[in-house]
Design goal:
By secondary structure, this protein is α+β, with helices and mostly antiparallel strands. About 25% of the residues lie in helices and about 25% in strands. A hairpin with a 3-residue loop joins β21 (about 335-345) and β22 (about 345-355).
Length: about 425
């Protein structure tokens, strides 16, 4: 869910990205926390005809509805409907909804470890999180959640679905799933647990070739990637790596700055990401700085339908700037920014304010990024089955295919170097 979050703390803006993860809601849509409690209403007042219609409906509902309702209930419902009708990611927040978003930003609660989204009237699994109960049980990206504890999900409120998935650590929840090419609905019994995301892991895939997996983008991911690249070089006898596999499969996104920092590790120059909106704050550009940590060694980036938001920022930048070869399947396609604007009485609105674009100017939102080399999905791949720790060439066909492509690229680079004038 890429989420650019801005908090005003002692006059300093801290920007990071979030998404909505069940058990660990982690960034799949850009969210900006604005440090203001009200805004001046621009332009002319409310059109009289529309105000009259609202008042007329309000009175008819109060008078004729089967159960008694008051003005506060109805006007609050009207505000909810007004904002949520804009798109699936905008909403009016109060009470539990607002508290849920605050909890989401901290990621400090128990759950089943999946990221979900509302798409075309259905609750869709974006990705199961590495190490979570859902991944271990076999829940997959693209699955549709149809019920929780035997009760159909509310497909009009993502937050309501998230709350039903949460619960005390150690408690169980039954999740009903519909899956493509599976005739009957499936049910998974999941035990809620504290979800601890391991952001970065690395190992040597073979002599001279590193493997780096990013499960999600947290505040520390940029620094962790830099440390792991240094460790890989040490494991390579202190010599520069000949190539790298960067695994972003089932990465739901996270902190924007961390995504930019990761892309910058492999780039010398160029635009990494831009965002466009109607206001000045919603328009920005982030650029690479000099210094390629791999010294132009070939990179293959593994992606799939669970690669979203901040992961797409990295993949899109490395592809568009011709720094890496993308391999796998089309990414999720989440590139919008939501701004959380605090209101009075501990309420807020979360409003879509801008969209992200890759360096080529391509929109990520609802489109995703097509890989350079398309691979058929391997349901037995370690990442697909929630066993990311087993993502090795011996156990993951997609990593083996990435190694084959790296061998070709490394050989081609060596040929060019041999033919270069000395």
């Amino acid at each position: 869910m890429l989420a650019a979050v801005k908090r005003s703390i002692a006059g300093t803006w801290l920007t990071f990205v979030l998404g909505i993860v069940v058990g660990l809601s982690l960034g799949m849509g850009a969210v900006v926390w604005a440090g203001k409690t009200h805004v001046e209403t621009p332009g002319a007042g409310l059109p009289w005809a529309d105000a009259r219609l609202l008042a007329e409906v309000l009175e008819r509902v109060k008078h004729d509805y089967v159960d008694p309702v008051n003005d506060h209930q109805l006007l609050t419902a009207a505000v909810h409907g007004m904002v949520s009708s804009l798109d699936p990611h905008s909403e009016f927040l109060e009470g539990e909804d607002y508290e849920d978003l605050k909890i989401t930003s901290s990621g400090e609660y128990s759950g089943v470890g999946i990221e979900i989204s509302l798409q075309d009237g259905a609750v869709v699994v974006i990705t199961p999180i590495d190490g979570g109960a859902a991944a271990a049980a076999g829940v997959r990206a693209g699955d549709l959640i149809i019920s929780i504890d035997g009760v159909p999900v509310d497909t009009t409120s993502l937050d309501a679905v998230i709350r039903r998935m949460r619960g005390p650590e150690g408690s169980e929840v039954r999740v009903g799933i519909e899956r493509d090419n599976v005739a009957e609905p499936m049910e998974f019994k999941l035990k809620r647990a504290r979800v601890e995301l391991r952001s970065v892991s690395s190992r040597m895939a073979e002599a001279g070739v590193g493997y780096l997996r990013i499960a999600q983008f947290s505040d520390a991911t940029g620094d962790d990637v830099a440390k792991d690249l240094a460790t890989l070089r040490q494991r390579n006898g202190g010599k520069p790596l000949k190539g790298l596999i960067l695994d972003l499969r089932n990465n739901p996104g996270g902190v924007l700055e961390s995504a930019v920092a990761v892309a910058d590790e492999f780039l010398d120059a160029g635009v990494i990401v831009t965002a466009k909106g109607r206001t000045e704050e919603s328009r920005f550009e982030m650029d690479a700085t000099p210094g390629d940590e791999l010294q132009a060694a070939p990179i293959v980036v593994l992606v799939n339908a669970g690669s979203a938001s901040a992961a797409e920022i990295v993949a899109g930048a490395l592809k568009d700037l011709h720094r890496a070869t993308l391999m796998g399947r089309r990414t999720f396609g989440k590139g919008s920014v939501q701004t959380v604007i605090p209101l009075t009485d501990d309420r807020a609105i979360k409003l879509t304010t801008s969209r992200y674009f890759t360096p080529s100017g391509a929109s990520i939102n609802h489109k995703g990024i097509d890989p350079d080399i398309v691979l058929e999905r391997d349901p037995n791949a370690a990442v697909e089955t929630g066993r990311a720790d087993d993502a090795t060439p011996a156990k993951d066909a997609e990593i083996r295919r990435a190694l084959q492509e790296l061998h070709r690229l490394i050989a081609a680079r060596a040929t060019v170097a041999a033919l270069a004038p000395r």
